[in-house]
Amino acid sequence: MLSINPSDIPYRNYCDLYLEMNPEISVIELFHLFAAAQGAFLGLLFLIQKRGNRLANRFLGFLLLVFSFRLFGAVVFWSRHLIEFPHLSLVTFPFIYLVGVLFYFYSRHLSANNLKLNSRFLLHLIPFFVAFVYILPYYLLPADLKVQIVKASYNSGASNLGEMPIARLIVYAGQFPHVLIYIGFAVRNLTTSSSIPLVSNAKVTVQRQWLRVLTIGFGSFFSLWILYNVCLITGMVYQKEVDQVLTTIMAVLIYAMAYYLFRKPELYLQDVAENGSKYKTSTLTTSQARDYLEKLHEIMEQEQLYRNSELKLSELAEKVGISGHHLSQIINENLGQNFFDFINGYRIKEAKNLLSDPDSKKFTLLSIAHTVGFNNKTSFNNFFKKQTGMTPSEFQKREDTV
Questions:
Q1: Which structural domain, as residue segments, surrounds residue 315?
Q2: Does 272 reside within a domain?
Q3: Are residues 212 and 288 in the same domain?
Q4: Quick one: 109 and 254 in the same domain?
Q5: Domain containing residue 118: CATH number
Q6: Residue 255 within any structural domain of the chain
Q7: Phi, psi of 100 (to 5 degrees)
Q8: What is the pLDDT along the chain (402 residues), one digit of tens a residue?
Q9: Domain total for the chain?
Q10: Are residues 256 and 297 in the same domain?
């Protein structure tokens, strides 16, 4: 039988972990498992999503799958199921080299529907394939030998960084700067990029706020994760509680992403306004577009169709007397907006007029929201703040003091 020293395992586990106990899942591990399942489900939904920015959605889908897979690996480790399913050992190891790449390309493509991938993207995947090839001999070992290695690795203490063979040191420690570098690329893209096409200010605000929150979340987590791992491989005594805090942060990140995306469906369902390529075969002339745009504004002002909270693009197009595709083109190309932002712009305009009226104190903010066409107070508050920089109640107080 092949003899393998536990110290030669590419990705060391660090502690003596209840080898005499049967595999079981604790409450906190169950919480982690549910988070991994939710993240995987959400990731699959983004992969098959046909609306919105498909390329950005796919990067987000793969990112969620990889992150959830890593969390699942932590659950399998903590619940001691590696002894029952040894082939799951180290299966998530190479995928850390995908997290930074997927995160950066998602942030880059989120606001740019016309941005295409080229063959150079494959260069970013080289570290992942190198890590995979390095760990491949371990994957090919028989199950009984892996069980011995898993048990030995549970019992092995943390080794000193200087004792690692150079190949293992490069592959293992290389994941730390790799993740930080790509998060740095994402930060630079967020702060300096001017590639966001003509979309409404509200749309830009939502996208940038989402990317900022995502960057802070991932950046904070991986900074802590790197600090912890460096301490371990340089001799720090293993602390189970610290490890579980980190995995809990992973779970919270997945839940938070799911909640935010649920609250902001325009991030992945709404197409951003494009630079004309979508409409290059359109038969709509420039003069026709101007005439229809004038008619559109006239209908919106006179009939106040925006008050209908269920108003659809097709219904408004029928009122104007054109196809939904042509109406979408007019709003995108002439106003730099999508249908969602165009309608809500009228709603906010009327809401501001109502809130400026001294008699508005008679009505609740919810009733005003319903009057102008919003389904609920939350969406009203969110969009109002994106448009004006303040909440409806803050705007009303300011008007009272003027």
A1: 277-401
A2: no
A3: no
A4: yes
A5: 1.20.1070
A6: yes
A7: -65, -40
A8: 334 444 444 434 334 434 444 567 788 889 999 999 999 999 999 999 877 778 889 999 999 999 999 999 888 887 778 888 888 888 888 999 999 999 999 988 886 655 677 788 899 999 999 999 998 998 999 988 888 877 776 555 444 444 556 777 788 888 889 999 999 888 887 775 443 333 444 556 677 788 888 989 998 999 898 888 888 777 776 677 788 888 999 999 999 998 888 887 777 775 544 444 566 667 788 888 888 889 999 999 899 999 998 888 889 999 999 988 888 888 887 887 888 888 998 999 999 988 888 777 778 888 999 999 998 888 888 888 888 888 888 888 887 665
A9: 2
A10: no
Q: Contact 365/397 with Cβ under 8 angstroms?
A: no
Residue that finishes a domain, picked among 267, 292, 318: 267
Looking at the fold, whether 90 and 30 belong to one and the same domain comes out as: yes
Is 301 a member of any domain?
yes
CA distances (Å), origin 86, targets 19, 29, 78, 143, 241: 14, 19, 13, 6, 24
The answer to whether position 16 is within a domain reads yes
Question: Cα 44 to chain center, whole Å?
Answer: 13
86, 180: one domain: yes
Considering the domain architecture, whether residues 154 and 202 belong to the same structural domain is answered as: yes
Round to whole Å and give the CA distance between 304 and 290: 20
Q: How far does Cα 212 stand from its chain's mean position?
A: 11
